[in-house]
Recover the amino acids of this structure.
């Protein structure tokens, strides 16, 4: 309450008390001289004025409580309407109602924005799933499906002309079918490896790298060289580095036609380095202005962690990726981070 409000309240109370004294004097037919001369009359007059002021004060307090309760009920009803995203009802243009109106508009705006964002996220998720299904179907068609179809056609031709084939021709045809089936099996393993979940699943970064590189060795013909020197890292960094490694391995499997993959993971007090090198077909850095979708995702993740990434590549000489992330040491002061 401001200072002028206190002054106004004091002035108002003084006027009311003087008015009560005047009414009591006038109704009892008393004068100030009589009060000053007769102590008994003055005492009765003082008690009458006191109880009259007390009664009026109690009455005003009750009236104030009733009005305050009605006001709180009205505010509470409007707050409920705001929470239920309904228009509020205001009878007066006071400050509280104006603020409630502003709050209602902001809540409506936030609700609309949240719904639009959620709808957009759902649509994006559905679009991502749709694109991923198309990519899987395309990969199956371009690799496994065609190889199985070719094997089927060769076997069908062999079965129809079996009586006219000598052993050498038959062996050549069966060897070709065997190679096609082995390639189909290898392509299917690579595709399943690419579809592996991108979460560490309660593993450390070191355990996650051991898992995916062992699986890469078991399910492909790629030779893996892996060196590591890491300790404990923040969970966010571990998740992002693990996904970056998976993205690079995915590109190597899908596009590089590599036979060797080198992975170096080193940690110092101030920096984490991830270096990955394949000996695939590579690309010309001078001719390629925009990185592939997978490599662009890697750049975005590194930027989010305030790190740096460098890609080096030449045609038929593979791709090298060097990532450096700063590590901030947390110091404890007074028992708090």
């Amino acid at each position: 309450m401001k200072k002028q409000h206190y002054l106004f309240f004091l002035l108002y109370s003084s006027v009311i008390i003087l008015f009560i004294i005047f009414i009591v004097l006038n109704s009892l037919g008393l004068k100030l001289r009589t009060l000053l001369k007769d102590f008994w009359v003055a005492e009765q007059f003082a008690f009458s004025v006191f109880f009259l002021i007390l009664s009026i004060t109690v009455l005003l307090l009750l009236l104030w409580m009733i009005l305050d309760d009605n006001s709180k009920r009205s505010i509470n009803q409007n707050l409920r309407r705001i929470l239920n995203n309904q228009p509020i009802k205001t009878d007066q243009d006071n400050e509280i109602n104006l603020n409630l109106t502003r709050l209602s508009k902001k809540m409506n705006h936030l609700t609309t924005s949240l719904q639009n964002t959620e709808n957009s996220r759902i649509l994006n998720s559905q679009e991502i799933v749709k694109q991923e299904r198309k990519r899987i179907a395309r990969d199956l068609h371009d690799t496994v499906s065609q190889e199985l179809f070719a094997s089927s056609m060769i076997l069908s031709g062999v079965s129809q002309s079996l009586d006219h084939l000598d052993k050498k021709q038959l062996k050549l045809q069966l060897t070709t079918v065997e190679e096609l089936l082995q390639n189909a099996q290898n392509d299917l393993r690579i595709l399943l490896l690419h579809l592996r979940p991108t979460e560490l699943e309660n593993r450390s970064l070191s355990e996650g790298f051991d898992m995916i590189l062992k699986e890469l060795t078991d399910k492909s013909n790629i030779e893996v060289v892996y060196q590591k020197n890491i300790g404990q890292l923040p969970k966010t960094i571990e998740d992002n580095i693990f996904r970056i490694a998976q993205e690079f391995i995915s590109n190597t499997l899908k596009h590089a036609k590599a036979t060797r993959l080198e992975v170096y993971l080193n940690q110092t007090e101030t920096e984490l380095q991830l270096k990955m090198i394949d000996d695939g077909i590579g690309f010309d850095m001078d001719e390629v202005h925009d990185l592939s979708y997978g490599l662009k995702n890697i750049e975005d993740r590194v930027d989010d962690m305030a790190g740096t990434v460098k890609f080096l590549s030449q045609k038929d000489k593979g791709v090298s990726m060097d990532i450096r992330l700063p590590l901030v040491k947390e110091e404890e002061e007074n028992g708090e981070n």
Observations:
- The radius of gyration is 42 Å.
- The helical segments are 3-28, 32-37, 39-83, 95-160, 167-194, 205-219, 235-256, 293-304.
